[in-house]
Structures are given as C-alpha cells and as structure tokens.
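[09:14] KT: can someone run the structure on this one? pasting the chain below
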Amino acid sequence: MALDTNLIAAVASALNTPVAGAIAGSVLTLAGSLLSNRSNAKQQIRQIAHSADQNGLQRSHDARESALERKMQLRREVYLPAIEAMFSGFVAVGMLVDPTVQRQDLMKRYAEAISAMGKASAIARAETISAVGAVINLLNEVNADLSQIRVSVEVAYQQLVSFGDVVHNVVADHKRWVDTQTNATVQGAMPADQWRRLNAQIEFLDGQIAKWSGSREASNLALAETQLQFLRRLVHWQEPTSSLLIAAGIALRKELDLTEDESRDIEAAMERNVAAAKIALLNNVKTAEAAVQSLRASTIVNAAES
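[09:31] RB: done, structure tokens below
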C-alpha cells in the first residue's frame, strides 16, 4: 500500500497554516511509522507462521512417536505373556502326572495361559490368530486326554496313601503289643492264658501288616503303571504340539516387530530345544518303565512269600 503524499500536501495547502504543516508532517511521520510497522508485522507474522509450522511438525512427530511407543507397549504387555503362556500351558498339563500337585492349581495356571493367548488373538493379525488358535485347540485336546488319565493317577495315589496310613497304624499297634510282651517276659508274672492271648494278638497283627503292606505295594505299582501310561501319551502329543508352538511363537515375534531376518535362526533354535525336550521325556519314560518292572518283580516275590 503506497502513501498518497499529494493528498496530504493538498490538505496542508488548503489549510495554509503552520499547524496544518505540522499536522501534515505528523501524518507523514505516522504514515511512515505505520508502513514500517506493517512491514515488520508481516515479517513477524511470517516468522511466527514458520515457527508454528515447525512446532506443529515437532508436535506431530512427538505424537506419532508417543502413539508408536504406546502401541509397542501394548504389544509387549499382550504378546510377550502370550509367548510364555503357550509353553506354561503345556507344562501345566504335563504336570498332571504328579498327584502331589493339586489339579485345581494346575488348571488355574492352564486357564491363565489360555486367557493370555486369547488376548493376543484379539488384537493380532490373521496369520497370528490362526497360529495361536491352533495351539489353543490342540492344548485343549491334550488337556482333555491327559485329564482322563489323571483321574486314574489320583485314584491310585489315594489308595497308596490310604494303605500306607493303615500299615503305619498297624505297625504302631504291633509295636505296643511287642513292648507288652517284652515287659511280661522280663517280669515273668503274666498268667498263661493272658500270654497266649498276647501272642495271638501279635500274630494277628503280623498278618495284618503283611496284608496291608501287600495292598500298599499293589497300589504303588498301579500308580507307577498309570503314570507310565500318562508319560507315553505325553510323548504322543509332544511332537504335534511342539510344531504348533514354534509356528505360533514365530508369529507372535513378528507382531512385536522383532527382526524377521532372524526368524529362521529362531525357528532352528526352537527346534533344537524341542528335540532336547523330547530326548529328556523319552529318558523319563525309560526310567518309569524300569521302575514299573522292578515294582512288578517285587510284588510277585512278596506275594509268593506271604
């Protein structure tokens, strides 16, 4: 915008007074100042706009970084527990072979593992949903199969504990009668009929110890045979379960944006671990088979002697 100095001069000439000249000079000074301020204002506006653009870009960048970090944090909170849950779920099912571990505790761990895998499936990509879902379905099948054998394991174990308690009580009772017999022998003052009853009671308890010890050994053999059956079924399920665990583990690692170039190396490492676990499991089966054979032989010998 140009300042119309001719208009100002005409106004000053028309007034033809010193004041008018002063006013005209003031107008010119003010106009120049306004023009300078206007120019400075435009420059400042351009600078502010540029600064705002820069700040906006920085805020946008920070927002994207913050959103990415929240996304990765969510992934870590969901996918890492899911990876752990796949293996802990299989371990919980495998621990059903141990009757000293409460079934409800194992099933709680199993349910927590399935829940963690389910959360991962809720936000994962289709490939991961399929891989994790396959693991869940197979684990449920394994759990149903091995839980049936667990029932037999518990029955045999409860019988073992029950017969063991009976043997313990009979042995304690036998000891009291023997102590009475020993005291009577030392004192030598027991009537003959009481002595006969005392000896008859000791003989009866000898028979009870043999009887209930035989029942305890039989229940111990039944427990060992049932646990061996469980371990053999676990070997049956180990290979198909492991292959699905590896596939799902790789898929979950991809969800975490871990280096995909290392996927083959990770898979190879997992396969080596699975192979080592299978060898250990087969060794456990061999140990259990040897224990069962030993118990069978011992049971036969004791039965013949009794």
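[09:33] KT: thanks! Residues 73-305 form one domain.
[09:34] RB: yep, looked fine to me
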